[in-house]
Amino acid sequence: MDWSEIVELLGLDVSADHLRKTAYGLIEYDNYIHGFNGVATTILSISDLHVPFQLPVNTFSEYVNRIDILQINGDVVDCQALSKFPKQYRISPIEEIIQARQYLIDLIEYINPKKVITNYGNHDKRLANYLAKNLDTDTLELLPDTSLELILIDGFRHYNKRTKSKTWYEPLCNVFDNIEIEYVDDWKCKIGKTWFIHPLAYRKNTLATCEMAMDYLHRTERELFDCVCLGHTHQYGDTKKGFIRLLEQGACCQVEKMNYMDGKLTTPQKKGFAIICQNENGDIINDKSKVIKLN
Q1: Long-range CB contacts (within 8 A, 24+) of 102-110
Q2: Can you tell me the mean pLDDT for 55-79?
Q3: 291 DSSP β-pair partners
Q4: What pLDDT, in 10s, does the model give residues 191-217?
Q5: Residue 287 maps to a domain
Q6: Buried b vs exposed e over 38-64: b needs ≥16 C-beta within 10 Å?
Q7: What is the CATH classification number for the domain harbouring 150?
Q8: Tens digit of pLDDT for each residue in 74-85?
Q9: Beta strands in the chain, from DSSP E residues, in sequence order
Q10: Does residue 289 sit within a domain?
């Protein structure tokens, strides 16, 4: 029935347009009062922590007990000791991994999501790249590709040669009984119809990398998607290409301390993260999804 037919059926002395506006207004008011806003899943996506440069967990205080999925979009550890960039000091990879594990525990306990989903970034892969250059193939089969596998799934033992001690670190999948921990062994993962990606590719202009990723996903993935949320660039971006929302989410690290691009006249790095809200079908709710800018 159209609104004119409804007015006639109910015997109302109002116009069809008036009834329509009143009806939708009452629906919005009812949704506000009862806390129902069409959101079935709220996702907090953070990327580029670059431990030991990570932001404090209270950066996300607004989202405590309000998040369904904590999505970690790569580059948890910096692996600065294995970097090709010059450095004045360094923290060993094992120290970074131990710090990163504790940070993730603190973060998960603080936010208290229902589920955690993690994919790796290019810095997380530095461990495998370093090992591949320095060990033979047979030895590599004994070792993980990323530090995230050790932290989230496998656990690891620290052999401290100075103190001649051994410390076992339980994987996070065994630390939390009531929170599901999922590690996606890839640079991308899909939740609902949103892709969260941390590619190796990088283009200079804002959202250029995100557009390139969108084109790649169109060519390689058969399933429909309506959003691409991109880590890696340490930049902000938010636009739509057709029906696809493109987001560059910034970095969750102290970018002012990561000065390896100093003097190269690059765009200043940005701190931030993304909130993605989806309906029960996994579609993005555009007016409730956004990039949170921190600087």
Answers
A1: 103/49, 103/51, 103/54, 103/57, 104/72, 104/76, 104/151, 104/152, 104/172, 105/172, 105/175, 106/57, 107/57, 107/60, 107/70, 108/70, 108/172, 108/176, 108/179, 110/57, 110/58, 110/60, 110/64
A2: 93
A3: 274
A4: 999 999 999 888 888 899 999 999 999
A5: yes
A6: eeebbbbbbbbbbbbbbbebebbeebe
A7: 3.60.21.10
A8: 999 886 645 555
A9: 41-46, 69-73, 115-119, 156-160, 165-169, 180-184, 188-191, 194-197, 227-230, 236-241, 244-249, 272-278, 290-293
A10: yes
Please, which pLDDT band fits residue 35 given cuts at 50, 70 and 90?
very low
For residue 196, tell me if it sits in a domain: yes
Residue 21 lies in a domain: no
Domain count for the chain, please give it: 1
Range of the domain at 206: 40-293
Taking the model in full, what pTM does it have? 0.81
